[in-house]
Write a structure and sequence with these properties.
It is a single chain. The protein is an alpha/beta fold. It has one domain: Ribonuclease Z/Hydroxyacylglutathione hydrolase-like (Metallo-beta-lactamase, Chain A). It has eight helices and 16 strands. The strands form three sheets. Strands 6-5-4-3-2-1-16 form a seven-stranded mixed β-sheet. The chain has a seven-stranded mixed β-sheet with strand order 7-8-9-10-12-14-15. A two-stranded parallel sheet has the order 11-13. Helix 3 packs across helix 4 and helix 6 packs parallel to helix 8. It is globular. Bound molecules: zinc ion (2 copies). The site of one zinc ion (ZN) has 4 residues, from loops.
């Protein structure tokens, strides 16, 4: 499976070359987005990803740096189909899984009032994320573990970390997370852990991961704070000094597992 760090910026002021959080996993069968920050669809298309392979979009929480590009992502999927004259059909469905139904439905409302009333032959299904197994289509399974990044609303968790399993490979994305939640979201062993650094210092999260005693084969820093984007090389050196196999991801990178 391939992992794409399409956008790697946290919700801060704009930095050249960095867009809000957008990740994707691609298998032979499908394409799966994890978060939909601004320009995610744009960057993904220019990276050569086939948006028409999209099977599901997993939103970690309803902050704009994670969901602000959802409307554009859905818009581009339809548009690419129209331009190529090979639109998705009535047998196709795109699941949108999110802890905040209202945000996703808000984007759908915007779209139904845009060009062509956004008429489509396929379906887009919004589903609420709760703790545990949230998706399994025989290709990938996705498990949600809540984080304490956002307070509960109506007694329901609003922010999640996602664990994706494809065959014998496991990838975990922290979502926005407090350090004390890292142990909660990590399985005993994973092939990659994508950790957000918008709220953390590199050394602190590396130490916290080591303290869990769990095996992270590859540590990928995403959702960068300004200090990382101002000096990526310096950040990479700090990561190298703190963890065995760590990389400061940038927009447009691909990882193979
Ligand atoms: Zn964020
Ligand atoms: Zn957030």
């Amino acid at each position: 499976m391939k992992l794409y760090t399409i956008g790697t910026c946290a919700g801060t002021e704009p930095f050249p070359g960095f867009r809000h959080t957008s990740l994707a996993v691609e298998t032979e069968y499908g394409l799966y987005f994890i978060d939909a920050g601004e320009s995610g669809a744009y960057n993904a298309h220019l990276m050569g990803l086939d948006l028409l392979k999209t099977k599901a979009i997993f939103i970690t929480h309803p902050h704009m740096d994670h969901v602000g590009g959802l409307g554009n992502l859905l818009w581009y999927i339809r548009k690419v189909g129209l331009v190529r004259k090979q639109s998705l059909t009535k047998d196709d469905n795109i699941d949108i899984l999110t802890p905040c139904i209202e945000t996703a439905e808000g984007f759908l409302t915007v779209l139904t009032n845009t060009e062509g009333d956004f008429k489509i032959d396929y379906t887009q299904t919004v589903k609420k994320v709760r703790e545990g197994l949230i998706f399994d289509n025989g290709d990938i399974s996705v498990y949600a573990t809540h984080t304490d990044h956002m307070p509960k609303k109506n007694d329901e968790y609003q922010s999640f970390s996602y664990r994706l399993v494809h065959g014998d490979k496991t990838i975990v994305f922290s979502g926005d997370i407090r350090r004390e939640n890292i142990d909660d979201v990590l399985p005993d062993e994973c092939d990659a852990f994508l950790i957000e650094t918008g709220h953390h210092q590199i050394e602190d999260v590396c130490q916290t991961i080591k303290d869990t005693g769990k095996k992270v084969k590859k540590l990928i820093f995403v959702h960068h704070g300004g200090y990382i984007m101002r000096d990526v090389e310096g950040a990479q050196k700090r990561a190298d000094d703190s963890f065995e196999n760590a990389v400061i991801a940038r927009d447009g990178m691909t990882f193979e597992f």
